[in-house]
Structure formats: C-alpha cells, structure tokens
Amino acid sequence: MTAALPTVDEALLARVRAALEALTDPEIPVVTLADMGILRDVRAAADDPALVEVVITPTYSGCPAMAQIEDDVRATLERLGVPARVVTQLAPAWTTDWMSEAARAKLRAYGIAPPGRCAGPTPAGERVLRFVPRAAGDEAVACPRCGSTHTREVSRFGSTACKALWQCLDCREPFDHFKPH
C-alpha cells in the first residue's frame, strides 16, 4: 500500500516560490523570472490537492527562451522533490508593465535601457494596449551608460526579438532597449 501524498499547503507554496524566484532569465541573466513578471503564480492545482502548479507567461508568444525557462522551473521543482506541473499561460498577454522596478534597475546596470510604462491610470480592470509604435519624441530613451536622452533607434531588432538596437549620440555607444509592450 502506498501512502497518499500530502496536500499542498501555504508553507510548501512559499518554499517553492522562494526557490523559483531565484531563477534567472536565460537571455538576460541579471534579472529573475519573478523580476520580469514571467513567473505568474505558484498555487495548488485545482484538480489535484497534492500537486503544485507553476504558471509562467512568455514575454511574447514566440520567445525562444520559454523552453529553457520551463526546463529550469522543472529542474528546480525536481530538486525540491515537489510533484508539480508547469502551465504556460498566454492570456492575458505579458506586458513590460509586469516588470518590477528592480528589473528595470538591473537592466539599466547591465547596459540595457529598460522600457517605460505602457499603461497609465485606467478604470479598474482596464488596460490600454498599443498596437503601433509610439510616435518619435513620445518617449525619450536614456542611454544606460551615460544617462543622456540624446539617443536614436538604429534598428527595431536588437540582440533578441524583445529588444531594439539604439545608439547614444553623446557617448556614441550602442545599447539594447527593451521594447515596451
């Protein structure tokens, strides 16, 4: 006779969340999945009280890092000996507004210009989405090296699809800018 698995409790969820909050983004190792808002939830599975469910959301639907992120989450859960499943949730879509202030500071220190906020104050439960780039001059992108806003976009595509390549016109250095969306 096998013993029944214990029911997931708050202490176990806290232990799992703490372990997962230390996982870094495979493309930008200075930020964690939690900092980026990719780690959405750690909860007891609704259909199995002995199973932990971890919810992740990609920064965009074609993000090539998601397979590695899911592998890293699974490996952490296995090390903890926690029966779990990983759920990739696409809706609501990830937004740069989910990034923590710590993530923005870490990106800047790493040499990547962080995005500004996309959504301003709106009625409860509503969020404004932009499907076109902002007009030139709408948002000054500060150089993460010297802080100058005398910058220009060189290419809409940077080192990864979620970043654009910019250049500072004062210090002349190129840098990635995390696209706001």
Provide a descriptive summary of the structure in words.
The protein is elongated, with a radius of gyration of 19 Å. It has a four-stranded mixed beta sheet with strand order 4-7-6-5. It contains four helices and seven strands; from the N terminus they run H-H-E-E-H-E-H-E-E-E-E. The protein folds into two domains: 10-88, GMP Synthetase, Chain A, domain 3, CATH 3.30.300; 99-119 and 135-178, no CATH class. The protein has helices at residues 10-20, 33-36, 66-80, 101-110, and strands at 39-45, 48-56, 84-88, 112-113, 151-155, 163-168, 174-178. The longest helix has 15 residues, at 66-80. With 181 residues, the chain is of the alpha/beta class.
What key attributes describe this structure?
4 helices; 181 residues; 22% strand; GMP Synthetase, Chain A, domain 3; 4-stranded mixed beta sheet; alpha/beta; 3-stranded mixed beta sheet; 2 domains
Topology, pairings included?
Layout: H1 10-20, H2 33-36, E1 39-45, E2 48-56, H3 66-80, E3 84-88, H4 101-110, E4 112-113, E5 151-155, E6 163-168, E7 174-178
Parallel strand pairs: 2-3, 4-7
Antiparallel strand pairs: 1-2, 5-6, 6-7
Terminal CA distance reads 53 Å
Strand runs, count: 7
Q: Helix tally?
A: 4
Please state the overall shape, judged from the principal axes of the Cα atoms.
elongated
Beta-sheet strand percentage? 15-25%
Write the CATH architecture name of the largest domain: 2-Layer Sandwich
